[in-house]
Amino acid sequence: MLRFFICIIAIFILSGCTTTEEAMLRANNEFVGKNIDDFVLKHGIPYAKHQLNNGEYVYAWSSGVISYDMPATTTMSGTVSPYGYYSGTAMTTGGGSINVWCEVQIHTTAEGKILSIKPLRDTWGKWTTSRCSEIFK
């Protein structure tokens, strides 16, 4: 089990762990000043839209949830009697699944020009510490 955690840590170090802030910087560099349609065509339709009193809009966008199954480990121990009977125990640890996703808020002008993109929720990614960084490469 210790080897497993050491491998995971090594993978994150070697993969150049990125953060939510770095992902938002990249997203803002790519989309601020462009029309919301450019974002939608590349990443999909936002799930919510709200018009502010000044005519500007705020959108909520989600990457969608991806679920990764995690393997379980079973450890068995016991003894065999001189007559061939086995007596032992088994212990299973781990298993289950991990859900990953990225949600952002997009602020636009009344005409649809993107003013800013901010994180709402960001989970661990498949290969990095930020799912948003995997989307906004």
Which strand order does the major sheet show? 1-2-7-8
- Strand content is 35-45%
Fraction of helical residues: 25-40%
Largest sheet: 4 strands, antiparallel
Q: Give the CA-based shape.
A: rod-shaped
User: How large is the count of helical segments?
Assistant: 4
Q: Write the element-wise H/E pattern from the N-terminal end onward.
A: HHHEEEEEEEEH
Mean pLDDT across residues: 89
| Residue windows where pLDDT falls under 50 for at least 5 positions | none
Distance between the ends: 32 Å
- Total discrete domains: 1
Give the total of beta strands.
Answer: 8
CA gyration radius, whole angstroms: 23 Å
Structural class: alpha+beta
